[in-house]
């Protein structure tokens, strides 16, 4: 029958080992079959589900009671803020100190019960989507359940230490399973290899890390390569640090540290870390040389500066490509359409004034970008079905709160303009359509290029430049922040 547990010697041995690691004698476990039935039939996990779910349920009830306690009084909110890591606490601490020194206590209390309280409650929701996945269990889950929740507060040293532990733990798990089942890399079948890979992969998914080669075509060599990465501390070091930075930025967006009235596009700490990483990279390039097989020596820094890692060269390349596409369009007699595409309001953490957006669904910047890519894919598939083939360029640009929006310059025959724009508009305004009313321009704008006012390349040159290095934009102000574009480019790059 569907869902029945079929006995397998290898699987039984594995489950027995998991019970022993959890501190249980397999022979003493009551209702063994009932316990196994609670497991995902396609996934073997490190701790009995019933035990772990009880822990999660208990944690959830405790958290709900804690929220009710701290959120009901100004003193509770202030104490909760003081208990937060420094990178969270510092966002509001100076403002609170200033209010206490210059305003009456009621103003301080109003600020705590209003802005700070809402920020902390938004922070709690964002954190609930981080940490260990509550619906998955395993060896890594059991060990990292408490520590993974504070990943956003990890230092570089702590992140590398965690990478060393996790990489070695997965390598140990892989070796243990191979030894227990008597497998070698040469002798194991594709099914056995796939089982081992999925077993390690689900341990990683519990930490919200997508395993390498998790999607795409299954190939034996590709899976072995993926396992090597999954068991490599160096690979984990890069992965954990990137995850830590993403989670940290999401938390800062939640409390209102990223918007035009605070720090536009990206948080101050993220910008500092990005600039420091660039400085270290430049120092590395300056201190190393390249030697070819003939003994010729070249400066690594010179080679880097001659590549697209050089922002000026990257900008030149994009502008040259755009000019080439425009030349082709002129020869074909096509017309250009400039589009501005924005996410629904629920993807924006803050409104234009800088205040919290009540409609925000606590999504991340990456999720907003995924939404745009997903809708674009559906819209272009529809265009292909209608035999419409526009071509051109897209540029992603952040709003003041970090939420991305797109600018696109598309070329097409004059006769296809109306149908193409109508299809694209229909797809990009479909989600949460009611919030737009008759003003669909808040989500989707289109403008036909006027050759008499400049070339199509000139239309998009500004957007390319202000998202790379701010070249030739001195004196121009950002529509998002009101600040000079040549100064805000570094925030966009960060």
Automatic annotation (TrEMBL):
Keywords: DNA replication, Endonuclease, Hydrolase, Nuclease. InterPro entries: Replication_gene_A-like. GO terms for biological process: DNA replication. Residues 161-470 form the Replication gene A protein-like domain. Pfam families: Phage_GPA. One of its GO terms (molecular function) is hydrolase activity. Belongs to the phage GPA family. This is Bacteriophage replication protein A. It comes from Candidatus Erwinia dacicola.
